[in-house]
Protein 1
Amino acid sequence: MSDATPARGLLRTLRAILGRSYPRIIGANRDKSWLFYDTVLPLLGTIAFVYVYKALGAPERFVGYVIMGGATVAFWMNVMWSMAAQFYWDKQGGNLELYMVVPCGIPAILLGMSFGGFVGTVIRAIAIVAIGSLLFNVNYSVSQWPVFLLVFGIAIVALYGLGVTFASLFLMWGREAWHMANLFMEPVFFLSGFYFPVRALGFWAGMGASLIPLTLALDAMRQLLFPGTHPPFLPLGTELGILAGLALMFIVLARFLLKKMEYLARREGRLSLRF
Amino acid sequence: MPVPAIETKELVREYRTKRSPQNPSGAPVVALDGVTLDVPQGELFGLLGPNGAGKTTLIKVLVTLLLPTRGAAKVLGLDVVGQAQQIRERISMVSGGEHSGYGILTVREQLWMFSQFYGLPSKPALARIDELLQVVGLFEERHRRTSALSTGMRQRMNLVRGLLPDPEVLFLDEPTVGLDVTAARDIRAYIKEWIRMKPGRTILLTTHYMREAEELCDRVSIIHKGRIIASDAPATLKRRASGGTYFLLTTETLDGISLAGLPGVQRADTRALDGRMELRLELAEDGAIAGVVKVLADSNRRIFSLQKVEPTLEEVFVQLVGQRLEEADERKAGP
């Protein structure tokens, strides 16, 4: 059963991605509670911000900002809790040790996790945007769909690359990393400008926050959704270039960390609860 | 000559620990202490020992989940440190009490998911899943969610998962732990069948059930406190136990009849038992019992019972370790 040829190896990786994404996709279909927890609850938080802006008499586009932010939160939550933290749960359940000894390797498992999670999250994000936009009558005027999709695509690659980076840390530190993920949530909500234009933070704080791929992605998408009215943090092309750089950086970093952490985890005996 | 399925030389695995009241020096815990093993291909090899003896640690090193601290370990001639990926292509592992997978999936879906990690094309994978589910008696449950399976059903499903990629070496870590008698018997029966079906398949089985090791294994190693203290075929190990095989015979009182000098009788111990006499006879060979029976018959002594008693692995274990396996388990668990 040795898969020696690269073609067979690639086929196996693709099959493993599909295999691991399956529970994520089918799970969303079987357990409908996510409709409430992942769509209605985030929407309530988003609506609260909408009313804050309305009470302040902010321009209409701010309602659109908030709804976009609400939809993007779903991706961040997915990356942190269903991807990075997943290894913690997988270790508790005994899956992690099996994932380590299957020949497809951990990267294929992680890609499967990402793909499955992404499919589910896209549906959630679309639901949040559709319901929010209908409720508050938001109009978008996307003039450059291909660029919009490109920004979104690169941002997702960078975001899930960050997710893999975190997952590799979880491989080693488990519970401690789980607490760290918890610690990241609110600061990231704030710094990435989920509910306001990141330009409001000032240039240097905004640049620092740009390490989180969602910061520039949100700003770029807002530039494309509300052309002429959104105050950009950086020019669209620059944001796109930085996002591409972040995507590349996180992929390389994730690859390196996964190898390193797997080695350390094997050395320290962190891949299994039972020895 | 084919390479051994499993080979370890002076294998040591230590765990770093923090200082604690139980371990004030913070000295590393030695889980494996110079383990040397050689398991040829095609063998069902058992590792027998109490909880905490090092059985699971040894398996985790061999399946590439743990790095050795010192020494060497190879699976199918491949080094567990430098050739982990090549090893993973050719092995599989099933642990007892395992709760792997996702409860939201059905049995068939869960097994399909794992088959994809081995790169098996879906159609033949599903056909093989159905075939194996039939064999382990789980076919009727194939559309049931795994969260609704009993422990025995789950363990059968896990066994199917382990067999799906048709591994060259299968590692079974306490595969029948916690199972009822029927489920454990079914699993043992299939393990025996699986290894006989294709020559060259190898199984390393850890267990702390003596009967399981006796019933299944071609050879057994007894592991205690991280060290292998004996290795051989179960029958040979039992023969080596002092006392060996003996006959237990109950008859009327002997009244001066001496059996000790009879040909082939190496030792004859007697004790009174409710007005009868119980004889414990150690013989040079089984046929010598005929001479004993003849002497008793000629002396008009009735024989009430005659039984050949063979030592068990349990007795071998007690002689080697100085305590019964359950006692070793309890001591490990501690108060």
Protein 2
Amino acid sequence: MVLETTTPPLKVRRRSSLPGFNTLTNIIGWLVLGLLIWWVIIPAIFNGRWQIFQERAIWEFLAEGLWVTVQIAFFAVILSTILGVVLALGRLSNKKIWAVPAITYIEIIRATPSFLIIFYAFIGLPKIGIKLDSFWAAIVGLTIYTSAVLAEIVRAGILSVDKGQLEAAYSLGLAPFHTMTKIVLPQALRRMIPAIVSQLITLVKDTSLAYVIALQELTSQGRAIYQKYGNVLETMFVIALIYFVICYVLSLVSQRLEVKNH
Amino acid sequence: MDYFGKGIIENLNLFWDGFLTTIWVSILAAIFSLVIGLVVACLRVIPGGGLKIMAIVYTEFFRNTPFLVQALALYFGLPRLGIQLQFNLFGLEFNQSFVVGTLALSLYTGAYVAETIRAGLLIVPPGQTEAARSLGLSLLQTLWYVVIPQAIRLVIPPLGNLYIAMIKNSAILSSIALVDLMSRATFVNNRIDRTFEVFSAVIIFYLVLTLPLAWGVSYFEKKLNPYRARSLKLRGAR
């Protein structure tokens, strides 16, 4: 016979924040959900406008758009992280010549709609001699916007590094530059990864705005489909579902990383 | 004479029109999204199956899909279902773009508001609810008089940030033919062909809307949590 020496696991019942309202809300809830499924969702599924999604060509068409979307998001997140770190360092600098431009850039761009920035990156940059096709214009526009947001995240990350780390580095005789690149930034960036991933979600959603500069990414492909077949709601639902899968997975990743960090 | 900003000043009345539309859409969507967010957040903390599932599906779906896709789907999709959303009210005419734009913006922002308020509601300790229950308050009374007042002051700064984002997102509504600041800017730009001037002007208009909100947010953040705003100079340790 094995002697059980370990204590039995403690049973923790998670307390509801609103105890004592179980039966009535439950009944109403299931009733409403049932009616919704019966009146709205089932008719929507069997309305016969989903036929075109049985064809392989449609999915290949959408996959082309998805590939463009993924590419833009990828390039934009890399570029804007680099630019964001530079901006954050500029903002935290003691020298006014770095701090003032960085603060101005961050504050103005953060207050401006990303839609506006993407559009004007496309029509404005050629006027000052920078020729960009819509693919790179979208990347530039998204980078301009996201770098300003990421700069604030990076700044928060740098400020969250314990001051003792800085003091230790200085007392060991490290130069400010090495203190930053070898001591502070590695710790700060590790802490910021969840925030950067959640910003990536916004970025993936913002790639849809490249629709306005006629880039053939996922949303534009969707528009082409519904203009041809006349099924707006169904097509847009499929498009939304594709975005949803990407963004939801990213949000799960972000949550997982956040739990890991703490 | 041709000076910087001439075209803007000549077309200022066009910008003003768009500016007012942006403000109106933002105010209405702010109110509606707050209502939606409160209701959905409450549905998510109330124990009980169906409503909770719907609330979760709503928040997750609207938060994780692009606003442009939602706006386009509603704008072109609702008329196909036979829903025409344009009406006269108090002598004011609300066209399809305005109504659908406000609706889409409220739904999108409402999902975020719901998440934020839910986070606030979950911070309130369960003991508060139990105390309210043992005093004999009903479900809605418990939420309205006990839980929400405690939660709301925690969520004021994040809500402010959400509304800043909402004002910026309202620019997207120009792609469903809403005559707002953004679409007026495009119109003026096509007319005078001064991209940089037009761009600067629009940015200034958006700054007028968002900067006061941002200042309000940082004021409330400092007021509610004075220890969060700590300053650190990079070379301060020397």
